[in-house]
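User: I've been going back and forth on whether these two constructs are worth ordering. Before I decide, could you fold them both?

Assistant: Sure. I'll take them in the order you sent them. The first construct and its structure tokens:
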Amino acid sequence: MSNENWLIYPTVDLFVYDLADGIGQNEEKISQNRTQFWQKIYGDKISVPQLENLKQAETVTAEYIELLGDKKLAAFESPLDGYAYPVKFGDTYAAQFDLSGKREPDADKRFAPKEIDCLEWLQQQVISRVNPPGTIGQSWLVWGQLTADDQDALATAQKCYSKLNLFPKAKWDRDLKAEGKFLGADFYELWLPPGDRGNIGQNYHVLICLFPYNNGQAIADISETVAKLYVHLMRLFAFRNKVIWAYTQSRQLKADLKDAARTIQQIVTQLPNQVNAPKVDLKELQQSLVKSLTIFSVYANYISKLEEQENIIKTNLKNYKRRLETIGKDMGNDAEAFKFMASFSDFAKEKYVWQAAADNRSLSAGLRLLENAIQTIEGIIEIERAKGDRTLNVTLGAVGVGIATSGVYASVYAGQVAPPKNPMDVNTVFWSSIGWGFLFSALSAMLLIIIGKNRR
């Protein structure tokens, strides 16, 4: 029997993160977010009054809120030796699920070496509680103490990784991203990021931490050290997962923007034909304008969201780097001590930050292209309307001339004849003047239209 198959007090922790209140979300959506988060802690048994009480916990004025107050933890049902620890910071819900097996009244049995095979069972017990999965992401921590001074930490970590079976088609050499020593323990970070067309559910991350045996160092002391580390990891993993989440969001936005850009290109391509047509179709242009304005509104909203995701990536990446230093200072009195995990920030800076910024710049060009097309269409419509207004003015002018002429005719006619003796003669004068008015109106209109065309 090889020592690499055994650990003292093997423990599995899952850190889960959910969006509490995103930008632009209404109260109904925020309430839905809250319900889904608390279902991870209490399952479907949670009641409306209980949810209302838990909502009140969020009103506490603090940057880091322990949502269960003085109670802090929600213990797993007996005989499981585990708990859930829910908190909220900023716009994010976070929960740690910790499980180390079944409670043993006898300390000797509790801290007796266990086969690494138990990790799979511990993992499944935790996963069964976390439903639905975290909307922002999740990270695993597996830790324990080696059973002998000569036990190979690397070989043991590889066996732990194999038994967890967290990663699809797991490969140690491919997935190992960082390793280092901290607090006397050996740390191994493994990560399989989602592809550019993937989603946050394809983000797999685990940190394996193995403490040395040191001639039987007290596991109680190690547990106390890990408990202090939990507080830091809760935030560190939050920043990490939020960076990845924001990047995956930006990939979907990019896909939507590219679809909209194809529609914009169609509008721009069709525009010369509409402008150079022998007869401009004003109705068709107006429809094109409405379509363009609608796409402009949607496209501008997507661009704004893409900028938002870029800022989220930058902000959380900066916070991730600072937390690495804080962990080093608080836990080891050396700001550089935990920086072996900076490989993530280096990768994210080169890929995520650069790609989001590049996409923002290139896709914003589509917004300017559409804006120019809209201005062109509006200009053509105004020109066509102006032409129509001139024709209308010509017609009104002609009618005015005709009406004036009919008035003059009626006055001249009335001055040349004696006052009518018969009322019917008055009607004859009126209708005669109207008739001459229409005749002069028609002649005037034709003359003004001819003049207008020659001027154009």
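The second construct, handled the same way:
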Amino acid sequence: MKKQEGEVRCMTRRRESVWDYPRPPCVEPESRRVTVTFAGVLVADSRNSLRVLETSHPPSFYIPASDVNTGVLEAATAVTYCEWKGAASHWDLRVGTSMSLCAAWCYERPRRGYELLRDHFAFYPGRVDRCTVGDEQATAQPGDFYGGWITPDIHGPVKGAPGTETW
């Protein structure tokens, strides 16, 4: 993948401390298979996702829209703002009678340096049934605000639990 002007990227090793990640965050390609499952449906399946890495946070995975079953996504009214990436729109997941509010988000017009995130969806692991990276199941970053994925190769402590707001 060729680096574009103004793009923020980094490369990391496989046993990782979240305290070695940069601030501002960086974006890097992820070749391991990344999946998201909700209510028995494979919502996303990709070998072309992106990881966003930021100090004290486990990675967030951004999956190309072409690898997401967008038919189960419904636009939510929530909008959040990242000082680095810009405004994020949120998406509910609906599979049959099962619904997860604001289970995904995307940056439709990411700020400079994060253009690679356009046309990608990120999912909160705590709002779906299962997320995997390679052969490993991911668990949710503590708290309800951040969407990091914790796998056995990620080490903390990580931001998100009560008392970590000022990290």
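Notes on the second construct follow. The mean pLDDT is 92. The first strand starts at residue 16 and ends at 17.
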